[in-house]
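Thread: F-box domain-containing protein, structure

OP (GT): Posting the sequence first so everyone is looking at the same thing. Length is 408 residues per the record. Can we get the structure tokens written out before standup tomorrow? I want them in the notebook alongside the other entries.
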Amino acid sequence: MDTKITITIGDLPAELFHKVLEQLGCEDRETLAACSLVCRRWFDISRQHLFSDIHVPRDCDETFEDLATFVELHETTAGYVRTLNLEARLFHIPPVISLMPSLPLDLLFRILRALPNLTILRMRQIKIAPSDPSDVSRLHRFNLEHMEYQKCLSEIGHTFELLSWFHIDHFDFDPLFSDSTETEIKAGDYALDVRSLCVSPWTTDPRLTFQVLQQVVPRYMLKSFRYPSLTILSTPIPVVDFLREVGQNIIDLNLCPSGQDDYLVLPQLPSLKVFRYHLEISLFCRPADLSLQRAVFASFKESWLPHLPMDLEQLIMYLTYPEVEDGIVPAANTSALWGLESALARFPRLKKLSLIFPELPCDMKTAISAAAVCFPTHYNRGVLEVDVRDFALECRDFDIYGYLRECC
């Protein structure tokens, strides 16, 4: 009698299927779709992964009506959706108004009501349009783990009307444009129900944005603030007043160089763990250019660094990588960063020192070797990070909330 047991794919535990599909990732749509055909037990699990992350780009003359209709008609599929990304098809930095699609509030709420298991919502370069108050007055509050919202064009009062319908664990708020028709802002009855807030004010006139944020953001809420590129702004952001008002629990802070004494606010931020700064110099340079780079770097080394908390856990410096010839390498006569490592000894809990470049004219191995010459101790300890990132897209591509969840 043959006692050999035959095991088929369908006999394998479902947990194994989930792990295989998680390794594929939601980007590999064709493979995920093919997995649903392997056996009957794989069908539902594959669809869960296939529809868990939905990305819906639209042109400026298109609507999201078809999305609303689809999720309303296909309840089972809608129940699989965990992450929803709505954005302009032609995503542009800096934003271009004419390229942005419009999304009325009532249509947005139709979509959200049809997605019972949604945990992450991202709306990027979308014009949120107001709707009849009667269309939204009977809605329940939506719970989200993470929401990213770039405010575009709609009046800021409608912005907080929208946000008042959510309970959000972690919220990225990027106010892109000011409301030019308004001179004073009243928050009214709307309030933020947010556990941790990241503000990135990409707006040419931030006064009104900060006016309303100071009304609706309590001290415990703001956990991350990112100062946009100075080339975007026509007027300075009142960052010090804002941080003094609501920055008591801020964990992650990004600031740009300024002619003001903004660094004096740092000792008033007792929860600060991650500090980001734009050095506006290169990792190394020709000896003839060193004096100028040292002058630029002096403000950070002499003013900002001494005011950072000693229990800082991560220091992130944005700089450029030079296109030099003649065999120039980092050394005392070519790098303004030379000797900085000794100054960093005042941060004994530093877990990561990051050098971030917008681009590299060499391979990553060469860049890491050059950085290691400037920071040999941190390199040997394994805490030196070298990476290439576009600052304008960093908040979008590099989610900080894994770190924030550990701190909250």
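GT: Both are above now. Quick notes for whoever picks this up: The chain has three domains: 21-50, 52-250, 276-408. The first helix runs from residue 14 to 24.
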